Amino acid sequence: MFTELMDHTAQGFDVLGAAVLVVGLVWSVVLAAGAWRRGGGRRAYQALRESFGGVLLLSLEVLVAADLIRTVAVAPTITNVAVLGLIVLIRTFLSFSLQIEIDGAPPWRRALTSGASVVARAARSSREGER
Structural domain of residue 16, as residue ranges? Predict the structure, then answer.
């Protein structure tokens, strides 16, 4: 009973991760279209890169959560744990690479940033484009 519930939970996380990608892509394109109207192609490209990069990071986190639930609660075999370790290693590398692409600098070289400061910077940039 518990294993079946955890398997369904992991499937729910898989669906959520895919939905985050689809909805995030649509939202990123909408943001880029608005930036295109306000500031041209360069601003639209930057908005698309930053917003979809964040979407990719979020969806990777959700998909890793699904794999973690599946590995720990459903089928905790040595092979599954090794596969999970490899997935987490790849996800960490992807996340690190995406964060450098979004911020333009490695974590140890950029100023203290948080998700809130990135959103504030994007909003400020959007307001400057309206002027």
Answer: 2-130
Residues 6+ apart with CB under 8 A from 68: 84
Distance separating alpha carbons of residues 13 and 7, to the nearest angstrom: 10
Q: List, as one string, the DSSP characters of 76-88.
A: --HHHHHHHHHHH
Mean pLDDT of 58-69: 87
Counting the structural domains of the chain, the total is: 1
C-alpha to C-alpha distance for 38 and 34, rounded to whole angstroms? 6
Closest CA to 75 of 2, 12, 1, 3: 3
Distances (CA, A) of 115 to 1, 42, 78: 39, 23, 36
Q: For position 75, what pLDDT does the model report?
A: 75
Tell me if 107 sits within 8 A of 99, measured CB to CB.
yes
What's the pLDDT tens digit per position in 91-123? 888 878 877 877 777 766 665 555 556 666 666
> Can you tell me whether residue 70 is helix, strand or coil?
helix
The mean predicted confidence, pLDDT, of the chain is 82
